[in-house]
Automatic annotation (TrEMBL):
It comes from Paramormyrops kingsleyae. SMART domains: C8, CT, VWC, VWD. The keyword Glycoprotein applies. PANTHER family: EXTRACELLULAR MATRIX GLYCOPROTEIN RELATED, MUCIN-2. GO terms for cellular component: extracellular matrix; extracellular space. Residues 698-785 form the CTCK domain. This is Intestinal mucin-like protein. The lineage of its organism: Eukaryota, Metazoa, Chordata, Craniata, Vertebrata. Residues 116-297 form the VWFD domain. Keywords: Disulfide bond, Glycoprotein, Repeat.
C-alpha cells in the first residue's frame, strides 16, 4: 500500500509503501524525465519501473502473489493475472474412499487422486491400499509396506501377538517405521490398567508432541500420529489398530507387503515377495514375515463352526446408523462392519469397540469428527488417566504452558501447520486448565509458574528452599530469585562436663555450636567391687560413672551364696543363706544357722557307724540287698546263698569284695519236659526243687550225624534212630516154687525199614549205602539172666 510518492526540485523521487507484513519501506532515486528533442528528432518516452512494491520491481518483471495470481510490472503499473489451472478429472477409487485434492507447488491448481490408505485393527483385520479386506492371525513381525524400488527409504513393520490365546487371535503390539536413517517405534504399555502410548526414535524414548526437520509425532492419549511432510505420509498407531496413508502420486505401483500394491487395482493386492500374485491374501500375509524372526509359529486359521454363532452385533450396527452417516460418503463402512461382526463373535465384547474406533479415526482424518462412544451405553467408554478427561473432538496437538513449544506448533507457519487444524478423540486437560508440558500429565489452572532446572515447577509467589538458599517465584517476571538463608542468633554455650568439648557444625545451612564428647578426655578408672557386689556403669554426659550394687547374696569365706543355698560354716550346724534378712551395714543377706540333728535310722542292709571328726555318723552297708519282684527286700549275708521260696530255680549269692557287696543271681533253666513220655507215677521234682524228672517210656529217639563206612562218608547228614526208655522188670517170690521168679523186658525195635544214602569216598567215587531205620520201639519180654545160688533167695517162714 503506497504511503507517499513525491519529488524534490533537484530531480529526485521519494516513495514509501506498506508491505504485506505491515513494514514501511522507503525508496529514493533520480526521477525519470522526458528528453526534449530538436524539432527534427522524434520524442522518446522512458519506461517506468514499479517502485511502490517491496522489493521494487523492474518494468516487465513478473512474480507470484499469495492469492493464486501472477503480478507483472508494466510501465510502472502492476497487472494482475489469475493463475490458469488445467481441468481436473475425478478418478474412480476401487477402495471406496473419496478422492483427495493434490495441489501443485503453487498451491493454486490441483488434481484429484485416490487415497492409498491401509488399515488394520482387532484380531487383526486388514484392508489393503486398494480396499481388499482379509483377516490374518499371525503372531510374528511382518512387513506392512515397503518400496519395491527404493526412493524415499520408507517401510513399516508390524509386530503382532496373541491377544486371545485360546482362539489364536492376534492383535498389533507395535509399529516400527523406517524412514531415512530413523527407526520410529510406536507401542503401548499397561500402567495400572490404562494403556499408555510410548514412542522411541532410534531406541531412545521421546515424548510427543515432537518434531524435527523430517517428521512430527503427536499423541492425544489415544492415537499416536506420525506425519512426514516431504512424502506426505501419515502413520497412526493406537494399540489394537493402525493406519498408513500414502500419497498415490508418490507411491503409485511402488509398494509391497501386507498392505498390498498402491495402484487402484485389487487384482494384485495379494502379492508375494517373489512378485507372484496369489488369490488368498491371508496366505500372502504370512510370506511377509521379517527374516530375522524365523522362530515364530505359523498362523492358525480358525476353523469356522458348522453353524455361525449367534452373536449380539448391536455395537456393530452403529456403523450403519446415523451416528456415522456423514462419514459414509467418505469412508466405506462395509469392511469395518464385517470385521466388527467377526470380533464380537470370537473375542470378548469390548473388542468390537476397536472397529468403531478405527472407523471413527479415519473419519476424523477426513475432517468428520464423530461423537460415537456415548452411543455405546458405556461399552466403549474410554478411561483417561487423571486428571485428563476424554474429548471426542480435540486437537491433535494440545496447547501447553511451554511458550516455546506452543510457538513451534501453533504460531509459526511451516510444513507442519496442517496439524493444528486436525481434530480427533483423545485425553485432554479439563476445561479451564492447561497442560503443563508435553512430557507431563499435570493440568494447570494457571500457567504463571517458574520452571526449575530439574524440570519441576513452582507457582508464582511461592517460596521454597534449595540447599542453603531461599528462593521465590516472582509474580511480575515469573523468574526465580534466590538469596542465602538468614541464620538466627545463638547465645554462648559452655561445655563444663567431664569429656566435653565445644564444636561447631552446620545445621540447616547455619553454624550451630554444641557440646561434643571426646572419650580421650575421660579420666582412667580401675574400678572393682567386693565379693557379693556387681559393678554397674551409667553414662554421664560424656564419661562413664561406676558404682557397686549388692547382688542379693550371702558371702562366706569370700564365696557368694544365693538365698536358700547351704553355707558350710561348720560340721555341727546347718546354715543357709537367708532370703529376706539383709545386713543394713554390709547390704548382704544374713546367713541363718541351726544345730544339726543326727539321723540314726538306716535302711535294711545298712548299719549306723560313727565318723571321726564329724558330728554325725553315717549308714554303712553290712550285707547284700535283694529286691524281689514282689516289691519286697531280702537281706543276704556275705558268703551265703539264698533261694527264693516261691521260685527255687533262682538263687542269690552274696560276696564282699573289699568294701563292696556284690549280689550274684543264678537262674537255672530247665530242659524241655514232656510228661506224656514218662511212665505214669514216676514224675517228681529234682533234689533242688526246681526241675521235674521222671522215668521215660520206651520211645524212638533221633540223632543227626554223618555215616562213615570204610573211610567213606555220607554226602549229607542222616537221621539215626535208637530205642531208649524204661521197661517193666520184676522179682516175685513164688510160694509154690519157694523161689524168686524174675520177669525181664527190654526196650528194643519193633518195626524197622531200610533207607539208603549216597556215600562219597576220598577218591571222589560214590556208592549207595543201606541202613536200618527204626519206625517203632517197644518193651520185649526177654529171659532174665540166671542169678547165683543164694544170691536172691528170700526165705520166709510160714
Amino acid at each position: 500500500m503506497p504511503l507517499y510518492n513525491v519529488t524534490d526540485y533537484d530531480g529526485w523521487c521519494f516513495s514509501a509503501f506498506c508491505t504485506e507484513t505491515c513494514g514501511i519501506v522507503k525508496h529514493f532515486a533520480p526521477c525519470s524525465t522526458a528528453v526534449t528533442s530538436s524539432p527534427t528528432s522524434p520524442t522518446t518516452v522512458p519506461k517506468l519501473n514499479c517502485l511502490n512494491t517491496y522489493p521494487p520491481r523492474k518494468n516487465g518483471e513478473s512474480w507470484r502473489s499469495g492469492n493464486c495470481s501472477t503480478n507483472t510490472c508494466v510501465n510502472g503499473s502492476i497487472i494482475v493475472t489469475k493463475t490458469q489451472c488445467k481441468p481436473t478429472k475425478t478418478p474412480v477409487c476401487v477402495n471406496g474412499y473419496s478422492p483427495v485434492k493434490v495441489y501443485d507447488d503453487s498451491g493454486c491448481c490441483f488434481q484429484e487422486e485416490c487415497r492409498c490408505l491401509c488399515s488394520g485393527w482387532g484380531d487383526p483385520h486388514y484392508i489393503t491400499f486398494d480396499g481388499t479386506y482379509y483377516p490374518f492371525q499371525g503372531n510374528c513381525s511382518y512387513v506392512l509396506v515397503k518400496e519395491i524400488y527404493p526412493k524415499y527409504n520408507f517401510s513399516v513393520i508390524i509386530q503382532n501377538y496373541y491377544c486371545d490365546a485360546p482362539d489364536h487371535l492376534s492383535c498389533p503390539q507395535s509399529l516400527t517405521v523406517y524412514y531415512k536413517s530413523y527407526e520410529i517405534m510406536m507401542t503401548q504399555k499397561d500402567i495400572n490398567g490404562i494403556f499408555k502410548n510410548l514412542v522411541y526414535i532410534n531406541n531412545k524414548q521421546i515424548f510427543p508432541a515432537y518434531k524435527n526437520s523430517d517428521f512430527s509425532i503427536t499423541d492425544n492419549g489415544i492415537d499416536t500420529l506420525l506425519y512426514i511432510p516431504d512424502i506426505n505420509a501419515w502413520v497412526s498407531f493406537r494399540g489394537l489398530m493402525f493406519s498408513i496413508d500414502l500419497p498415490y502420486s508418490k507411491f503409485f505401483n511402488n509398494t509391497e507387503g501386507q498392505c498390498g500394491t498402491c495402484d487402484n487395482n485389487r487384482t494384485d493386492d495379494c502379492l508375494l515377495p517373489n512378485g507372484t500374485v496369489i488369490s488368498s491374501c491371508p496366505k500372502m500375509a504370512n510370506h511377509w514375515k521379517v527374516h530375522d524372526n524365523e522362530t515364530c509359529p505359523p498362523p492358525v486359521n480358525p476353523t469356522p463352526p458348522p453353524h455361525p454363532p449367534v452373536c449380539n452385533r448391536t455395537i456393530c450396527e452403529l456403523l450403519k446408523s446415523k451416528v456415522f452417516e456423514k462419514c459414509h460418503k467418505v469412508i466405506p463402512y462395509e469392511p469395518y462392519y464385517e470385521g466388527c461382526s467377526f470380533d464380537v463373535c470370537h473375542m470378548p465384547v469390548p473388542i468390537g469397540c476397536s472397529t468403531l474406533q478405527m472407523y471413527a479415526s479415519l473419519c476424523a482424518a477426513a475432517g468428520i469428527c464423530v461423537d460415537w462412544r456415548n452411543q455405546t451405553h458405556g461399552v466403549c467408554a474410554y478411561k483417561c488417566q487423571a486428571p485428563k478427561v476424554y474429548e471426542p473432538c480435540g486437537p491433535l496437538v494440545e496447547p501447553t504452558c511451554n511458550l516455546r513449544y506452543n510457538k513451534m506448533f501453533f504460531s509459526s507457519k511451516n510444513e507442519y501447520s496442517i496439524i493444528r487444524n486436525m481434530f480427533g478423540e483423545g485425553c485432554y486437560c479439563p476445561p479451564g486448565s492447561t497442560l503443563m508440558s508435553p512430557k507431563s500429565d499435570v493440568c494447570m489452572k494457571s500457567c504463571d509458574v517458574c520452571m526449575l532446572p530439574n524440570g519441576q515447577w513452582k507457582e508464582a509467589g511461592s517460596v521454597w528452599t534449595i540447599g542453603c538458599d531461599t528462593c521465590e517465584c516472582l509474580n511480575n517476571t515469573l523468574t526465580i530469585d534466590c538469596e542465602p538463608m538468614e541464620c538466627p542468633y545463638q547465645p554462648p554455650l559452655h561445655c563444663n562436663q567431664e569429656g566435653q568439648v565445644l564444636v561447631t557444625e552446620e545445621v540447616d545451612c547455619c553454624p550451630k555450636a554444641k557440646c561434643a564428647c571426646n572419650s580421650s578426655l575421660c579420666s582412667p578408672k580401675n574400678f572393682t567391687c567386693d565379693v557379693g557386689f556387681t559393678k554397674e556403669i551409667i553414662m554421664g554426659p560424656c564419661c562413664p560413672i561406676y558404682f557397686c550394687v549388692p547382688m542379693g547374696v550371702c558371702v562366706f569365706n569370700n564365696t557368694p551364696y544365693q538365698p536358700g543355698d547351704s553355707v558350710p560354716e561348720g560340721p555341727c550346724v546347718d546354715c543357709v543363706c537367708g532370703a529376706s534378712t539383709v545386713d543394713p551395714n554390709t547390704k548382704l543377706h544374713v546367713i541363718e544357722c541351726t544345730p544339726k540333728v543326727c539321723d540314726l535310722h538306716c535302711s535294711e542292709g545298712y548299719e549306723y557307724q560313727d565318723v571321726a571328726g564329724q558330728c554325725c555318723g553315717r549308714c554303712v552297708q553290712a550285707s547284700c540287698i535283694v529286691h524281689l519282684p514282689s516289691q519286697t527286700v531280702h537281706i543276704v549275708q556275705p558268703g551265703t546263698v539264698w533261694a527264693a521260696p516261691n521260685d527255687p530255680c533262682i538263687k542269690y549269692e552274696c560276696a564282699k569284695i573289699g568294701n563292696q557287696f556284690i549280689t550274684t543271681e543264678y537262674i537255672k533253666i530247665c530242659p524241655f519236659f514232656n510228661p506224656a513220655s514218662c511212665i505214669p507215677g514216676t514224675v517228681k521234682t529234682g533234689a533242688d526243687g526246681c526241675c521235674p524228672t521222671c522215668v521215660q517210656k520206651c520211645n524212638v529217639t533221633t540223632n543227626s550225624t554223618y555215616l562213615v563206612s570204610n573211610g567213606c562218608r555220607s554226602s549229607n547228614q542222616v537221621i539215626l534212630t535208637t530205642c531208649k526208655g524204661s521197661c517193666d522188670t520184676s522179682s516175685v517170690y513164688s510160694l509154690q516154687s519157694r523161689t524168686m521168679e524174675y520177669t525181664c523186658s527190654c526196650c528194643q525195635e519193633i518195626t524197622t525199614t531200610e533207607k539208603q544214602v549216597e556215600m562219597t569216598c576220598p577218591d571222589g567215587s560214590t556208592f549207595t549205602y543201606t541202613y536200618l531205620n527204626i519206625e517203632q520201639c517197644g518193651c520185649v519180654q526177654n529171659e532174665c539172666p540166671a542169678k547165683a545160688a543164694g544170691s536172691s533167695s528170700i526165705l520166709k517162714k510160714p
